[in-house]
Write a structure and sequence with these properties.
The structure is a single chain. By secondary structure, the chain is an alpha/beta fold. About 30% of the residues lie in helices and about 30% in strands. The strands form two sheets. Strands 1, 2, 3, 4, 5, 6, 9, 10, 11, 12, 13, 14, 15 and 16 form a 14-stranded mixed β-sheet that branches. The chain has a two-stranded antiparallel ribbon with strand order 7-8. Helix 4 packs parallel to helix 5.
């Protein structure tokens, strides 16, 4: 059995202050005995409209996160960072950036996932409408990272609404799905817990949803409630408090194998093949 941590943050625009909180959460995770900690979307800087500015620091931020993983000997799913170039190194010419989730071992960055599904949605909150595609270029590659405690399928936020991504990750060997997120208060209240459990149920993977919580500036409010669902889709734990928090949950690969063998959903599919 392995212990896995899921963080909740209220990231603001000050990168140094956010890094202090990140390190404190890592220390708490290590004290719990966890081998992995998952951080939320925009963990280092929540500055809406300043993605390009933060993206210019992508490599230095990545190095700092790698140093923390090495120092504390822990795996990190580093929420998301804006990145000005694609996985092949080519620069995005139109000024947009990629939303990138990094899986970092104590040795180095092991995997990079670029968010596929962009949040171009009308929401009945104080922001009104969101158009991520104006600032971000979507990724196209499905990514599974191999770890000593199981294979991690990387997802980000709005990706949770697309079961075919979770199923594709499962088909490519994922045991755990990570979902760094910044759900709006409105959509989170309606669907966040449901989506964590649904993706756990239909993929038979453990789902770790790390969330931003609270106000970020005057208009943007996130739902929080970082949570984890097991391979049956049952809720294991969920943060109920505000601000920076941590939950740590068990993951048993042998138990997951039994669940999948007793109800072989992937073999029983008829309409879609993965």
């Amino acid at each position: 059995m392995t212990l896995l941590s899921v963080a909740q943050m209220n990231s603001q625009n000050d990168i140094e202050e956010n890094f202090k909180i990140i390190e404190t959460l890592i220390q708490q995770s290590k004290a719990d005995g966890a081998e992995l900690i998952v951080f939320p979307e925009n963990l280092v800087c929540f500055a809406a409209g300043k993605q390009r500015e933060t993206a210019a620091q992508f490599e230095s931020i990545q190095q700092r996160l790698e140093q923390l993983a090495h120092q504390y000997q822990i795996w990190i799913v580093a929420g998301t960072l804006p990145c000005p170039y694609r996985p092949d190194g080519s620069t995005i010419a139109d000024g947009r950036v990629r939303t990138v989730s990094l899986c970092i071992s104590p040795e180095k960055t092991e995997a990079r996932y670029d968010k596929i599904h962009l949040f171009d949605v009308q929401v009945g909150d104080s922001v009104g409408g969101y158009q991520e595609s104006k600032f971000f270029e979507p990724g196209s590659e499905v990514v599974v990272a191999k770890t000593p405690f199981g294979h991690i399928g990387l997802m980000v936020c709005y990706d949770l609404r697309f079961p075919e991504l979770a199923l594709t990750l499962r088909a490519q060997g994922a045991n755990i799905l990570t979902a760094p997120s910044a759900f709006t208060y409105t959509t989170g209240q309606m669907h966040w817990q449901l989506l964590l459990q649904a993706r756990g149920m239909d993929s038979q993977c453990q789902v770790l949803g790390a969330a931003q919580q609270g106000w970020h500036g005057e208009k943007r409010q996130t739902w929080g409630h970082s949570g984890a669902a097991n391979s049956r889709g049952q809720l294991l734990a969920m943060v109920e408090n505000e601000g920076a928090q941590l939950i740590t949950v068990p993951f048993d690969l042998a138990e997951q194998t039994k669940i999948r063998e007793s109800m072989p959903l992937m073999q029983h599919r008829r309409l879609l093949q993965f």
